[in-house]
C-alpha cells in the first residue's frame, strides 16, 4: 500500500531539501522507483552521480572493465604527474 501522491510529493520534497533524511529502506525504495542505483542518491557531486548512473547501466563484466580502465588511467596519471 503506497502513500497518496500529495503526501509522497511532500515527503520527497523534504528529502530533496534535506529537511528530513530518508532511512536506507526508504532511499532504496526511492531509487527503485526512479530506476537508479541507490548510490546515485548519495553522490556528492553531479559528476559522481553521472558516473554511478552510467556504470549502473553497464553489465557486471562491463562495469569491472570500466573500473579497471579508470584505475589504469589514475595509475598512469600519478606516474606521469606525481599526483592525482
Summary tags:
Cro/C1-type_HTH, Lambda_DNA-bd_dom_sf, 2 domains, mainly alpha, Helix-turn-helix family protein, DNA binding, elongated, 84 residues
How does this model look, in words?
The chain is mostly helical and 84 residues long. The protein folds into two domains: 35 residues, no CATH class; 41 residues, no CATH class. The protein has five helices and no strands. The longest helix has 22 residues.
Short overview:
With 84 residues, this protein is mainly α.
Based on CA atoms alone, the radius of gyration comes out at: 17 Å
- Largest beta sheet, briefly? none
- List the uncertain runs: none
Number of strands: 0
Oligomer: single chain
Query: How far from one another are the termini?
Result: 49 Å
Name the shape in a single word. elongated
User: What class do helices, strands and sheet pairing give?
Assistant: mainly alpha
Overall mean pLDDT score? 82
Strand content: under 5%
Helix fraction, binned, reads: over 70%
How many distinct folded domains?
Answer: 2
Number of helices: 5
The helix/strand series, from N terminus to C terminus, equals HHHHH
GO molecular function: DNA binding
Organism: Lysobacter antibioticus
Domain HTH cro/C1-type: 12-41
Protein name: Helix-turn-helix family protein
Amino acid at each position: 500500500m503506497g502513500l497518496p501522491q500529495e503526501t509522497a510529493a511532500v515527503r520527497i520534497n523534504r528529502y530533496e531539501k534535506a529537511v528530513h533524511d530518508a532511512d536506507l529502506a526508504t532511499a532504496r525504495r526511492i531509487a527503485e522507483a526512479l530506476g537508479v542505483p541507490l548510490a546515485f542518491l548519495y553522490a556528492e557531486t553531479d559528476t559522481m552521480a553521472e558516473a554511478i548512473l552510467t556504470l549502473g547501466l553497464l553489465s557486471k563484466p562491463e562495469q569491472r572493465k570500466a573500473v579497471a580502465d579508470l584505475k589504469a588511467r589514475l595509475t598512469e596519471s600519478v606516474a606521469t604527474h606525481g599526483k592525482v
